[in-house]
Amino acid sequence: MVASTSQAEEAVCRRRADPETPQLSKNGDIMLGGVFSLHSKWQGRMDTYMQKPLPLQCTSFNLRGIQYIQAMLLAIEEINNSTDLLPGISLGYKIYDICGSISRGVGVTLALTNGNEEISSASDGACARPGQVQAIVGVGHSTPSMAISTVIGPFHIPLISHFATCACLSDKTKYPSFLRTIPSDYYQSRALAQLVKYFGWTWVGAIRSNDDYGNDGMAIFTETAQQLGICLEYSVSFYRTDPPDKIKKIVNIIKTSTSKVIVTFLAHMDIDLLIHELSRHNLTGYQWVGTEAWIFDSQTASMDKHHILDGAIGLSIPKAHVSGMREFILNVKPLNSTRNELFTDFWETLFDCKFKHSKSSSENQKECTGHEVVTGVENTYTDMSLMPIFYNVYKGVYTVAHALHNILSCNRTCNNMVKLDPFTILQHIRKIRFTTKEGDEVYFNENGDPAAKYEIINWQPTENGIVDFVTVGLYDASLSADKQLKLQNKSLIWAQNSQQVPLSVCSDKCPPGTRKVLQKGKPVCCYDCLRCTEGQISNTTDSITCVICHPEFWSNEERDACVKKEAEFLSYEEIMGALLTAASLFGTCMTAVVAFIFFRYRQTPIVRANNSELSFLLLFSLILCFLCSLTFMGRPSEWSCMLRHTVFGITFVLCISCVLGKTIVVLMAFRATLPGSDVMKWFGPAQQKLSVLGFTLIQVIICILWLTISPPFPFKNFKKFKDKIILECALGSAVGFWAVLGYIGLLAILCFVLAFLARKLPDNFNEAKFITFSMLIFCAVWITFIPAYVSSPGKFSVAVEIFAILASSFGLLICIFIPKCYIILLKPEKNTKKNMMEKGAPKSS
User: Fold this and answer.
1) What is the CATH topology of the domain spanning 185-316+452-497?
2) Any idea which architecture 575-836 has in CATH?
3) Tens-digit pLDDT profile for residues 178-191
């Protein structure tokens, strides 16, 4: 508006543009604005800019728009009649039709903001004045909502939408005064992606409306789908005003695609246009996934004559029931008292007739009487399938009323002295929380959005050809991620009335035991399945990697599980272990028998002549040597590992010490026979015992140091075999182990050298010969043991070590004691002192 003055006239504000007349209006103490699309299209025109453009000519009357208006009027009527909410305050309204046009939406919004008078007085010389309405309800599409919110945002006038779902409108920096009673597409897009993932569809097509609703919603869906491993074979867009060639291109894309699932972000008018084109090509058998814009719209279902969308699944606003709303919507008498032009368009569209005075009446069309019965027809207006959206309009009006109730401090009466301004109302609306008469809680988050809850709808055709919208699940964004999507135990109908979930993948799932390898140049959903290598598994479907089994486990033949490796150790139960155990026990028993024979004939010359005390000590040590081999069998433990090598080392040193003592006795005995020799007094029985004790004590000290510094311990060897665990004893300190063996070897060599030197002494029974031979066997066994031990795999190395112990023990037993037993038992005539003292015949050199 612009101010103009003259000397004779008071200053006035004149409107520059043509006045915008509301389609419905009613005065009240507080005014609300309503913006709806009572028409879905407008007549195209070519402006030459040579003259002022004509007003927009709206066409295609939209019965849904009247339903939304009726929902708003019902809420206002209930509030005005209420004694609890805004008592004594009446709400008025101005409702405009924008025909789906963005430019017209901006124009009527300015009219609601500035007032609609062509001329008004200019107080204090300025045309600025407070807004004529305190809040605006309506605007059912995202793009007009964005334009209108941009205009009224600086004035902080609240705009509460019932059907604009674009997530972009949650940006409060751009749209500070926008709120809505329908969830944002941010949640719907993510819910659609989760729904697609739930049914295993990883290869889908995508079609969207080429506007803010479709583009923004599909962008969020695509981002979420990628995170969930879903690939889009194609993603195309169109708008209802696009040329037919563009729609045909989309149909051809669908024809040539391999995906069988189509995800849509389409307004209901766009899906209607696409269905019409698909019907011409008879393209059925595709699984459609839709949004709340059309998934529960019976008008869309009625247009699908070729059953293109049968079995469709998608998200809808939860069903709602508002007592009295259906009756109020069907009661059109109040509309008859409003402007005649609105009622005429509505009535002619509702009953498909024409009034006589109508400009477009024709002779062939049924004449309207104005007394037709609304309940007698079945069309879009009498269809209440969009009751949840009507309820959103209803809640939007109540939201403003509750905010006003709080601002005016209403109790029994309201404080009329409070000066209202849109900014204060907006602040109160953002913080509002109330419960409707139906028991639903209404509130907004920091972005002006309500709680996101959806029903999952499945199109199930009935026998009479009517589609039944069956609720088969729920989605609640307020729950944790794993509980948001919940499908009920209901049978679903899929494309072409199939009972089986359709398959839509680029590549079949990779079974357990394999991993996915991407195909070069193709999306991540297109891949080959490669079998896991040995020692690796995948126990899930579509695994991208094979997991290496724990060292104690190995992959099974199917490569889908790690099975515990077989633990290998020398066991008593197996044949080899049993034989070695038997040999050990046999040697023990044999030594015990020899000891018994020696004890039985301990007074005989052959026993007494060979130092009976050292003989019995040697037999005792041989028993220990045979028994110590048993510590090498069975599952290694901390105690068995420490015992096996230390006991082995000490017993063998004890054994060799006794043999060494006997060898020295032989040498000393020969020296004692020489004239004037008193050597035996230096190596008598006491000295022999002390030497054995001393030699053995040195080995005991070595073993104690070994066990103290770094003792042997049980060890699991994973390196020798891939599919087996070798249970063995680690040496701990290699120095300790070789010190023990080295000391044994040193004594054995010393014993061998001394026995070798005494082998030709001229006694009839020279024990040195047998000791020499036993030491020769002992050394040969342990020299051949080393390469055999190193080259033997697993438990066989332990078997080789046991065999060496037993062989060397048997060698000592047989070589030293069996000849004596032979004489004692079979040749008693030689077991005499005389025979023992005789000199053996000298041997030629």
Assistant:
1) Rossmann fold (3.40.50)
2) Up-down Bundle (1.20)
3) 999 999 999 999 99
